Amino acid sequence: MSCFETFQAYALRSVGVGERLLPGSDFTLCEQFTLIGSGMIWNIYFGVLALATGFFFAVALAVAKGSANSAFRKPAEWFIFLFRGSPLFIQFFFAYFLFLNLKGVHPVFGPFTAAWLGALIVLFLNTAAYTAEIFYGALRSIPQGDIDAADAYGLTGWPRFRRIIWPTMLRLAWPAYTNEAIFLFHATTLVYFSGFPAWQQKGDALYYASYFADKTFNPFVPYPILAFYFILLTLVIISVFAVINKRLNRHLPQARRAKLKLRMNLIR
Amino acid sequence: MYSYCSDPDALSTFRWLSCYLTTGVHMSFYWSFLKVLMLLAITAPVALGFGFLGAMAARAPFSPARWIGKGYIAIVRGVPDIAFFLFFVIALDQGIEWLRHQVKCPDWDQPIRQGSDFLVCSFAKMPLNSAPQWQHEAYGFSLAVVTFAIVFGAFAANVLFGAMRAVPYAQVETAEAYGMTHRQAFWRITVPQMWVYALPGLSNLWMVLIKATPLLFLLGIEDIVYWARELGGTKTSRFTSYPHGDWRMWYFLVLLIFYLAFTKLSEVVLERIMVRLTHAQATLGGEAQRKAS
Fold first, then answer.
1. Nearest-CA distance from B91 to chain A in Å?
2. A268 and B211 in contact by Cβ < 8 A?
3. The complex's ipTM?
4. In chain A, which residues have their Cβ closer than 8 Å to the Cβ of B249?
5. DSSP class per residue in A164-196
6. How many domains does chain B fold into?
7. pLDDT at A213
8. In a domain, A2, yes or no
9. Of A93, B10, B70, B76, which residue is least crowded by CB atoms under 10 Å?
10. Most B CBs within 10 Å: which of A42, A113, A265, as the mutation test of the B interface?
């Protein structure tokens, strides 16, 4: 098979399009690149959707945690502690078996035992908790002068939040949020190693990389390929977030603009 | 374990549970908690050592050492850690066997990689095929420790590198003005003072290390995740005298609570250490303590 044919057969393998059988022997470099790249579709799917949905929940959580009313504050604190204090790996396992039990109660819960929904929900809750902590920190470091100025202008309640607190919070939180986004994409590699089955061998990039490593007993090819893809993905995330960061800081004089500082990759 | 456990079917719920939770396999489950704690206890200092070497290399005046140190920090931090775990366990194992192969069987003429096999002579196997079971387990466990130490060493190197730079430079200059060599100034001035700057980063790292321990499961160790899956699975009365349905959810709930409790405990202890270390330091925290007392 030429490399182009391999690409046609396996480029969308991870979503079930193309050749059914995975290559079984005599693996070429092209096959490894194509299949692991195909797996990246799932990493991007989980990462993008969890970030996009988690963002809004995180804002709500952060505001709740910063609230003076303990009926809002306590649940938010507990939620954040629960998801930040325990390993994501265990959360995946627990959620999977929970959904499995629920499926036994009612078939409505069937889709939840599949990775595309079940793991997405866990990632959504997890990233919401981590992001909420970042946003909460940003909320607390909003300059008092900004709030005083808002009060002086007679802004209260929703307009004050919408026009003063929210943009400043985002601006302050953005560098840390960029790191969180990078961790989240790295964390998506855990999905298929934590209970959620890769049905019909449709898995993510790490799933295919470890497939090749197991078959060839040679870790020196597939894992560097995976690393290459992830470094590429990380660079894309950084540049997208840098554009947004620039926009969030556009009103500030040049010297005071916060540069994105990258502190990457801690396990959750 | 107890005398009344001989006929589990006839027992009341409470007594049944007391028997069920003290079977031999459950003892292995409890033992695996100790394994996790042992891994933490061994890995933390080893990783700190790796981190210290990495940080020293990254700020060395000799440029190749600096490149190695900085490269080590950058590579490990740029790639998903789980990929590193999966990679290093095989790579280390093959590396060790390859080295032993070179030393022990110099007259072996076949290639080591044949298709999808990795073949070394039988004297180079690690551990030897004839070795007792505990040696296999110990070898697997030490590979896991080294893997953890390599990955977390890079994180620690980053923290320590920052902490070494945070020590006021005037201190080092003063030391050199007093005639200390570069090395003396490093060991007598920089190293003793850097810990207070490093502690927030290191305590964060400790939390992360705790949360990384379930990944032991991926390295092929029979850890708590392994046993929770084994024990929780549906058991029929044909294979065990304690049949039950799918209880894996409850086992993982226990693990979840274990980790939450452990995190909370660590937070409290680290907070106390921080209070101790900031005592009488010329930092904001130290100043606040002085005013409060």
1. 6
2. yes
3. 0.84
4. 94, 97-98, 100-101
5. IIHHHHHHHHHHHHHHHHHHHHHHGGGGGGTT-
6. 1
7. 87
8. no
9. B10
10. A265
pLDDT band, residue A61 (cuts 50/70/90): very high
* pLDDT score for A265: 44
Is residue A122 a part of any domain in this protein? yes
CATH for A120 = 1.10.3720.10
Q: Do B208 and A266 touch (CB under 8 A)?
A: yes
Residues of B in contact with A226 (CB under 8 A): 79-80, 83
**Strand B117-118 and strand B113-114: pairing?**
antiparallel
Is residue A217 situated within a structural domain?
yes
Run of H or E residues at A157? helix A157-160
Give the confidence band of A78 by pLDDT, cuts at 50, 70, 90: very high
**Residue B98 belongs to a domain with what CATH number?**
1.10.3720.10
B201: phi then psi, degrees, rounded to nearest 5: -65, -40
Domain assignment present for residue A103? The answer is: yes
Q: Which residue of B has its CA nearest to A25?
A: B116
Decide if A91 touches B, using CB distance below 8 A: yes
Question: What is the span of the domain harbouring residue B233?
Answer: 3-292
The string of DSSP codes covering B160-173 is HHHHHHHS-HHHHH
Asked if A218 and B218 come within 8 Å (Cβ–Cβ), the reply is no
- Calpha distance B178→B161 (Å, rounded): 25
Ramachandran sector of residue A18 (left: φ over 0; alpha: ψ -120 to 50; beta: rest): left
**CA A251 – CA A183 distance, rounded (Å):** 29
Work out how many domains chain A is built from and give that number: 1
What contacts B126, CB < 8 A, 6 or more positions away?
B93, B96, B97, B100, B139
- Closest residue in A to B162 (Cα) is A263
* Domain containing residue A251: 26-256
Nearest to A223 among B81, B86, B118 (CB): B86
**Inter-chain CB proximity B80 and A265 less than 8 Å:** yes
Question: What's the token pair of residue B108?
Answer: 């072996």
